[in-house]
Amino acid sequence: MKPLLILLVLSVILTGCGTGKNYQEVKQKQIENDPCVYDRIKGQKAEERCIARVNAKAAEGEGLFATMIEDIKEDLGEGAGGSSYVNKWLWNGSIETLGEFPLKIADAFGGVIETDWLIKDGVPDNRCAVKVLIKTKDLVSNGVEVNTICQKYNGTNWVLVNDDLSEANREIENSILSLARKNYLAFAG
To answer: Shortest CA distance to 115 belongs to which of 184, 163, 168, 177?
Structure first.
């Protein structure tokens, strides 16, 4: 039984080593034969862009990725020269509103801001965090969403508090919108 097991293990090891080519060499050869193989997985539009890049390279001698950034911006509706995916007035209003709190996440491209846990002085067994999501590139009243979560320490674990925090969320949203409007009007003159 033992010799059979050893023979089986050795055959598996030797079979894996027998080709003489490593994974990277095989993938490189695959890409050389079909440069759009991975774009095909992403869908028809990605494959069409890849084919256009390959054809442009063949026709003009450019690199494969010469137009990739412009294509991505076009898909996102930015056109040439765009640089932001969220409304800058809502972003600035959110940062200004939450400016006195420690921030855990501030992703301007994704439009996500999250505070670290906030603990009120004298109440160490309660904590809250505020999460802001900017959902649009336009300055609109429903372009920002706030979600506040609170937890209470029960002696061993932090447990989610099931209080209705919708009024607190609405107040933070209104503050963000008010600051965004004020800053926009000051800029617009």
So the answer is: 168
Q: List the chain residues with pLDDT less than 50.
A: 12, 14, 16, 18, 61-64, 66, 78-82
Q: Is the distance from CB of 139 to CB of 89 less than 8 angstroms?
A: yes
Q: 67-76: string of b/e by CB count within 10 Å (b at 16+)?
A: eeeebeeeee
What is the pTM (predicted TM-score) of this model? 0.56
Is 32 part of a structural domain of the chain? yes
> Do β-strands 126-134 and 103-107 pair in parallel, antiparallel, or remain unpaired?
unpaired
Phi, psi (rounded to 5 degrees) for 112: -115, 130
Query: What digits encode the pLDDT tens for the residues 93-122?
Result: 999 999 899 999 999 888 999 999 999 888
Q: Give the range of the structural domain holding residue 145, as residue numbers without chain letter.
A: 88-188
Identify the CATH number of the domain in which residue 156 sits: 3.30.530
The phi, psi pair for 87, rounded to 5°, reads -70, 125
